[in-house]
Design brief:
With about 475 residues, the chain is mostly helical. The chain is about 75% helix and about 0% strand.
């Protein structure tokens, strides 16, 4: 059975990576940039920064997949190989938490969209919405218990089903001739805005990173690929395809409605844009596409949550219970523990009356550190010459460039997020230390924190966690 799981080719891997990335974000692009205070020029610059940064990260994953084929479940293994067990654990934990919170955000978005028709669902985090989310969650768990590789194949059909209506929206917007250059350039720099151009560009970070979460999806399940090179190639193809789609949708929206109207659109904002383009039926079509897309994303992210716990456990990062399999070769406890944590966050979202945007902000901040550490490891490999083997002069130069830019972009993501969300990030990361200690005691191999900088990182994380708790209790910061 395990041998069969390693036979995924290029197209299944591309479908999986697209399934990871193409979810709710595409339907909120139209309004999220405007609501964050970003005007046309800032949005274009934000897209430019995102393209340069994300393509650099993508190429880092691609090159590492070739240079380090033995490092499967790349997000964790790259950080551990480069910076030791504790830093590697934090990368694995952060990635897992990001996947879990993304799944929570999809549940909130799904039932928040239904809330437009059924008041009991509200914004997606009401008691009724949480109960229905739980039912779907555990049904997906039962499906995954039948085997992850089988679910990956089904995912390809789900991706096709949700791509078709999105492409149709783009075509409709173009042929309806609703794009107006005058609207596009009106308030181009946001004259009179309280935010500077630099602040507006920073405000795009959560949306641009959120819509590309999952960029490394094919690498994360690389142990099921025919080759690591295929996993890396699938990552590049899926990124380029979706970037073009996202940019076109965003640019078209900015030429259909003025900035203030885009900012005031309800969720999903693309429904409002399509209504303006072709009438009420356009908004209905978007809502149908939202259900298909988010439904597929729920399915995909249960797989991703599972692999995000199983992969590190299989390599000795998480406690060994996470790698136990059932008779269908499915990692039982990775699936169950992931579902339990999703349930906990669903309850927290209900108690906080959280909206979709708040949930995806948390998912985004959680994944920034794993992305940054991956880029740092690619840069370290360049210094050591490990990622340059077999390359000509030009290939070596580009590998260096991508590693440097990816590292700078990793730092930029955290900087642009603001100190508030960095502290919120500590709230997400600090509890993982308990799991790390459990695993180290299982190993019984030396001190819990083997390196000096491990102790420093752990101490800083605990201090930030305490500060965040105090600020949270006083209402100074709020994750929702």
């Amino acid at each position: 059975m395990e041998g069969q799981e390693k036979k995924l080719g290029l197209f299944p891997l591309v479908f999986f990576a697209i399934g990871c990335m193409l979810a709710s974000g595409v339907f909120t692009l139209s309004g999220d940039f405007a609501a964050a205070g970003a005007y046309t020029l800032a949005t274009i610059i934000g897209w430019g920064v995102t393209f340069i940064g994300m393509i650099a990260l993508t190429m880092c994953y691609y090159r590492l997949a070739i240079a380090k084929p033995e490092l499967t479940s790349g997000i964790y293994s790259y950080a551990r190989e480069g910076f030791g067990s504790y830093i590697g654990f934090n990368s694995a934990w952060g990635y897992w938490m990001s996947a879990v919170l993304a799944l929570v955000s999809f549940f909130v978005a799904f039932f928040g969209n239904l809330g437009s028709y059924i008041p009991g669902f509200g914004s997606g985090s009401t008691p009724l919405a949480v109960i229905c989310s739980s039912v779907i969650l555990w049904l997906l768990v039962l499906l995954l218990m039948r085997g992850v590789s089988q679910a990956t194949i089904i995912n390809a059909f789900v991706v096709v089903a949700k791509v078709i209506p999105i492409v149709f929206m783009v075509i409709a917007a173009i042929f309806a001739k609703s794009f107006h250059w005058s609207i596009f350039v009106d308030n181009f720099t946001g004259a009179g805005s309280d935010m500077s151009l630099f602040e507006q560009v920073k405000a795009t970070i959560f949306t641009t990173v959120w819509i590309f979460i999952g960029i490394e999806g094919a690498v994360v399940i690389s142990e099921r690929a025919k080759t690591m090179k295929l996993a890396g190639r699938a990552t590049v193809i899926s990124f380029v395809a979706l970037f073009l789609l996202y940019f076109i949708i965003s640019a078209l929206s900015m030429g259909v409605l003025p900035h203030d109207e885009l900012a005031s659109l309800g969720w999903p904002s693309m429904a409002g844009v399509m209504t303006a383009i072709v009438g009420t039926w356009g908004g209905v079509l978007v809502n149908v596409a939202v259900f298909i897309s988010i439904g597929g994303a729920m399915f995909t992210y249960v797989i991703l949550c599972t692999d995000s716990a199983f992969g590190p456990a299989d390599q000795g990062c998480f406690p060994s219970i996470f790698k136990k399999r059932n008779k269908h070769n499915a990692p039982t406890y990775s699936i169950i523990f992931s579902a339990i944590i999703v349930e906990i966050f669903l309850i927290i979202a209900m108690l906080s009356d959280a909206a979709f945007q708040s949930c995806y902000y948390l998912s985004t901040i959680a994944i920034m550190i794993p992305y940054m550490l991956s880029a740092f490891y690619a840069l370290k490999c360049c210094f050591n010459g490990e990622s340059l083997q077999g390359l000509s002069g030009g290939g070596k130069a580009w590998t260096w460039i991508f590693a440097i830019i990816g590292s700078i972009y990793g730092v930029w993501m955290l900087y642009a997020s603001s100190i508030t969300y960095v502290l919120v990030c500590a709230l997400l990361y600090a509890p993982g230390m308990i799991l790390y200690i459990i695993r180290r005691k299982e190993e019984n191999d030396g001190p819990i924190f083997p390196k000096v900088y491990d102790k420093v990182v752990a101490a800083v994380l605990v201090i930030m966690f305490v500060v965040a708790i105090v600020l949270l209790a006083t209402g100074t910061i709020s994750p929702f």
